[in-house]
Amino acid sequence: MAHILRRLGEAALRVRKVGTNANIWLPPIVSRRKAMEVRHQWLAEGKDWPYEHIVPGIPKNDLPYRDGRQKGHKREVERRDRQARIKDAMAKMPQLIAEYRVAPVDKLLMTQRQIREKYVLRKLK
Q: Per the record, where are the segments of Basic and acidic residues compositional bias (predicted)?
């Protein structure tokens, strides 16, 4: 492609009109993708790209999205939130177990209805 650019210059990168009164346009001889590859090679060799006004590089974004960090997957965020909820629930677990357990003395001395009123119905109020 570089040899075509050397031979034809800008004409290889521009669309071409066929005929004088015909309204027929042909694509450039060197496609934009190939021109970008050649541009990349020229810049890698340290040369200046003479066709910057026709085939400029990818414009630099002054304000990149999220400072260049990618958003990530939804599952990662959900997993992090889920782990936090599990950690909070596990911290409350000893207290919940202590509240749930019925004292052995109450099992011996109380009826099921009295146990239910003392341990279950009291928490629902």
A: 63-83
* pLDDT tens readout for residues 77-109: 899 999 999 999 999 998 888 777 777 888 788
Measured between alpha carbons, how far is 112 from 120 in angstroms, rounded to an integer? 11
How many angstroms separate the CA atoms of 119 and 103, rounded? Answer: 10
Cβ neighbourhood burial of 37 (10 Å; 0-12, 13-18, 19+): middle
User: What average pLDDT does the structure give for the chain?
Assistant: 81
Residue 38 to residue 1: CA distance in whole angstroms: 7
User: What's the whole-model pTM score?
Assistant: 0.43
Q: Which two tokens stand for residue 104?
A: 């052995």
Q: Tell me which residue of 113, 115, 95, 96 sits closest to 104, measured CA to CA.
A: 115
- Could you tell me which of 26, 1, 2 has the C-alpha nearest to residue 14? 26
